[in-house]
Amino acid sequence: MIRTFQAVVLVFFACGALAQTKTTQALDEKTEGLTLYFYKNTLRMLNQTESKEFDEMIKDIEKMKFVMIDREAEKFGNEEYRKLVNDYKAEKYDELLSSRLESKNIDVYLKEEDGIVKGTIILASDLTSLYVLDILGRIRPDKVGELFKTINESTDIGGMIKEFVGEDKNPDRDNRN
User: Fold this and answer.
1) Which letter does DSSP use for residue 61 in this model?
2) Tens of pLDDT along 8-48?
3) What gap in Å lies between CA 61 and CA 59, rounded to an integer?
4) DSSP class of 115
5) Tens digit of pLDDT for each residue in 100-116?
6) CB neighbours of 136 closer than 8 A, spacing ≥ 6?
7) Cys-Cys with 108: which of 49, 69, 96, 177 at CB 3.0–4.6 Å?
8) Which of 78, 76, 75, 67 is nearest to 28 (CA)?
9) CB atoms < 10 A from the CB of 153, how many?
10) Element (H, E) at 63
11) How far is Cα 51 from Cα 11, in angstroms, rounded to an integer?
12) Residue 32 to residues 3, 35, 63, 131, 177: CA-CA distances in angstroms?
């Protein structure tokens, strides 16, 4: 199962045409970082405990692009973040909520057509990293934290994320799980 999951993740690394928004695609092309692609079946692979709640949480997600950049290395400051948000708004995404989860600021944007949510953007940032979940479909806003937690706790994906942010190399980072 783990080898199959690793093979699927590697296929998604190589596939660049799955961007849901022009803004996320531009961010991905202009910055160095970690990019993962997920379809519904790939997301189900994260459900290693076979949780019915997780399946319910992802039921309206068609595909998802996860982009993570090192804000320090990419010189991605507050001005660049504001431009990113404005670019999403130019694509008709409206702000749904802003909050904090652990040490990250979380911003959620929705794109609706005829009252139906067609796209969801979730931005999670702190001083050192920016995480973008570009979702074709929707997720309940109160489940965003749970989705991040599941991705982070996935053995393979969590390991890639931790390697990318260099948690074991930077003593100033908070290493709590």
Assistant:
1) E
2) 343 333 333 444 799 999 999 999 988 988 888 888 877 77
3) 6
4) T
5) 877 888 899 999 989 88
6) 20, 61, 62, 63, 64, 118, 119
7) 96
8) 67
9) 13
10) strand 61-70
11) 25
12) 26, 9, 22, 13, 25
Contact (CB, 8 A) for 20 and 110: no
Span 61-78, pLDDT tens digits: 999 999 999 999 999 999
User: What would the two tokens of residue 175 be?
Assistant: 């290493």
Token digits of residue 50:
């076979």
The confidence score (pLDDT) of residue 122 equals: 92
Domain range summary for the chain, segments of one domain joined by +? 2-165
Quickly count: other Cβ atoms within 10 Å of residue 165's Cβ: 17
Can you tell me which residue has the tokens 């998802």? 64
Structure-token pair, residue 152 = 């982070």
* Residue 155 CB neighbour total at 10 angstroms: 12
User: Which of helix, strand or coil describes residue 107?
Assistant: strand
Instruction: Give me 157's structure tokens.
Output: 């994906």
Q: Which two tokens stand for residue 176?
A: 């709590």
Q: What is the DSSP letter of 121?
A: E
Residues composing the chain: 177
